[in-house]
UniProtKB/TrEMBL annotation:
Stated family: Belongs to the NXPE family.
Residues that span the membrane, as ranges: 7-25
Keyword hit for Membrane: yes
Protein name: NXPE C-terminal domain-containing protein
Residue ranges constituting the NXPE C-terminal domain according to the UniProt record: 349-564
SUPFAM superfamilies: E set domains
Keywords per UniProt: Membrane, Transmembrane, Transmembrane helix
Pfam families in the record: Neurexophilin (PF06312), NXPE4_C (PF24536)
Length: 568
């Protein structure tokens, strides 16, 4: 039996490999559609090997020039968020991708490089027996950086690390500064964990348990009841409250309170239950599954670990950055499939396709930009840190002074449920972004900055998409009735999840949402985009849900550049 099925499986894998290669040549949309179509192969007896060595690690070039290096064409990259294509079965930890033995080498390494040269890495995934892996699906992340007493710089890969499908991966960089450039490659999520996480997302819903409080005052007495809630009417509930609200992009159900005194309209509060009440992979009798899912991200070894970029061409990139259009002037900075990375240099972030104006925190430019305007921040804590950074730089801790001086109005509101916090939120204190946007007047001078992703990680992708679409539609209505308003979305960023949180929050889930967000926003060309994902890939500090300095201040510069292109 086994002998007869192998060639068939091999043939299927070859077919899908050919399909993938064809897709790479097509546009974004086709590769996105592919995501929906791919069903992970079910392979009975563990690993099968498959000769994909003919796959070229070098991507075909496009006709467009590289924005930072016009002497080069830019590459074509495959899909942003590729689905796991690993076998379902692995026997022990030793079969899984092992960060001790996995390694990278530089393809065609030379003595010296110039700015704008391409640096290419070949990453080889190996298992605990130090054997090469034969299938893909690992989530590797790679960056280059330089740091000494007087200089620092960092940049992620152009595009995502490319999965060659055979246990090998290709990482491409554009060298953007001169000096001793170090290379850092981490195994963020082993392929076996990517597979489990994907599987969990599809089969073990809801990943988290949510509660709803229903309450009502009757004759001076408070009647209240807490019930289970979630995005699907699950557990074959005979009596449910359908609390969905299509106008704000919410699908939500709660058990109907048992008390006949309470009705569905008495829903007053929301909370997330603590971890132990959730469905967890440990509970599913697969401790080995959790062992691979809970593994921390680890740096892998490489040969050599750094390259020398000669200083002759040192200032070339800064001249080139100066020639880029100012961010926000052209609505084309959104890379649905990332293909070229920006870079940090001495605490300033340079996006790859447009120029950011610097608004020094001690200069008058920030206040001039925002004077007599309403600035609305909507979303999660990763946009709240930008709001806080702006407040601090404008007014110190004292907002009232600024208000009196410049009539600047900064607002922040959280994005309504889901909220991954373990205490009660009264619904009367929560606001849907869609409704907030619909409330902005046609004669207001306003800047709107929106970001939501982190709290949506454990939920269905469609749950997230529905919300984003609703908000983007509201933004479009706003822009139509008030074309002076500037609306921008910020994307998500890389994180370092740890412990049991990893099964709810991880870079595989975050990247999946990021891809959904970009694909949706592509249809709203009037909405601007701040690429925090690319920034976090290139940052010197460790990945964190709240990325370390100077992440927020660079987002402020980008935001103000888009809002006030002529003020500098
Ligand atoms: C590496 O060098 C060899 C020999 O010069 C060449 O054939 C090959 O195309 C090069 N590969 C890359 C990725 O540059
Ligand atoms: C990696 O391989 C080494 C050597 O076989 C082993 O000791 C270690 O436990 C493995 N790591 C993981 C995370 O499985
Ligand atoms: C630090 O790096 C920069 C850029 O590569 C270089 O120009 C400078 O000489 C270096 N300084 C030291 C002290 O190594
Ligand atoms: C819940 O209500 C929404 C909107 O009113 C509706 O689209 C959906 O079908 C309802 N769900 C069920 C299970 O009836
Ligand atoms: C903020 O500034 C105002 C006006 O100068 C002052 O009255 C108030 O005490 C200050 N508040 C704080 C917390 O410093
Ligand atoms: C904006 O319009 C509303 C209603 O049309 C009006 O009440 C308000 O005074 C206007 N505000 C400004 C700043 O013009």
């Amino acid at each position: 039996m086994a002998k007869r099925t192998r060639p068939i499986l091999g043939f299927l894998m070859l077919l899908s490999a050919i399909a993938i290669i064809i897709m790479w040549w097509n546009d974004d949309i086709i590769s996105m559609n592919r995501l929906a179509a791919v069903i992970p192969l079910s392979i009975k007896n563990g690993v099968i090997s498959c000769n994909l060595d003919k796959t070229s690690p070098v991507e075909p070039e496009t006709l467009q020039n590289h924005p930072l290096c016009p002497n080069r064409k830019r590459k074509h990259f495959p899909h942003f968020s590729y689905p796991p294509a690993t076998p379902r079965q692995w026997i022990t930890q030793m079969d899984t991708t092992n960060s001790t033995f996995s390694q990278f080498t530089i393809v065609n390494d030379t003595e010296s490089y110039s700015v704008c040269d391409q640096l290419e890495l070949l990453i080889e995934a190996r298992n605990g027996y130090d054997e090469p892996k034969t299938y893909g699906g690992d989530l590797f992340r790679a960056k280059i950086f330089t740091r000494n007493a007087s200089f620092s710089a960092g940049s992620g890969t152009d595009g995502e690390v490319i999965d060659l499908g055979n246990g090998k991966y290709s990482a491409l960089f554009t060298l953007k500064w001169a000096g001793d450039v170090s290379i850092n490659v981490i195994l963020a999520v082993p392929s076996e964990a990517v597979f489990e996480l994907q599987n969990l997302k599809e089969t073990l819903q809801p990943r988290e348990n949510y509660l709803g409080k229903f309450e009502k005052e009757i004759d001076g007495n408070n009647v209240e009841e807490d019930v289970l809630c979630g995005p699907v009417p699950e557990r074959r509930l005979t009596s449910i409250c359908n609390l969905s609200n299509p106008s704000v992009g919410l699908t939500w159900y709660c058990q109907k309170p048992k008390s006949s005194l309470l009705s569905c309209s008495d829903w007053t509060a929301f909370r997330t239950l603590e971890w132990p009440s959730n469905k967890r992979i440990e509970d599913e009798g697969y401790s080995r599954r959790s062992s691979v899912v809970h593994r921390p991200a680890v740096r892998i070894k490489g040969f050599p670990k750094h390259v020398i970029v000669n200083s002759k061409s040192g200032d070339f990139i800064s001249e080139q950055v100066d020639r880029l259009p100012v961010c926000g002037q052209q609505h084309d900075s959104l890379q649905v499939i990332p293909w070229v990375a920006g870079f940090y240099q001495n605490k300033r972030w340079y996006p790859p396709t447009c120029k950011v104006n610097h608004f020094p925190s001690d200069g008058p430019e920030r206040k001039n930009c925002l004077a007599n305007k309403n600035v609305y921040f909507y979303g999660d804590s990763t946009i709240r840190i930008v709001h806080s950074n702006l407040i601090k730089s404008l007014f110190g801790a004292n907002l009232t002074v600024g208000k009196e001086e410049h009539d600047i109005h900064l607002h922040y509101r959280f994005h309504h449920i889901p909220i991954r916090k373990f205490f009660w939120y009264k619904l009367s204190t929560l606001y849907f972004i869609t409704n907030e946007l619909d409330g902005i007047g046609s004669n207001e001078t306003a800047i709107v900055v929106i970001c939501l992703w982190a709290h949506f990680q454990p939920l269905y992708r469609s749950f997230y998409e529905q919300r984003i679409k609703s908000i983007a539609d509201a933004a479009l209505r706003l822009l139509n009735r008030n074309p002076t308003v500037v609306v921008m979305f910020k994307g998500g960023n890389t994180q370092t999840p740890y412990g049991p949180r990893v099964q709810y929050l991880n870079d595989h889930y975050a990247r999946d949402n990021e891809e959904a967000l970009r694909r949706i926003l592509k249809s709203y060309p009037k909405i601007h985009f701040l690429d925090a994902w690319d920034m976090s890939k290139g940052q010197l500090g460790k990945p964190n849900t709240h990325p370390p300095k100077p992440h927020a201040s660079n987002l402020v510069d980008q935001m103000l550049t888009i809002a006030c292109p002529r003020d500098v």
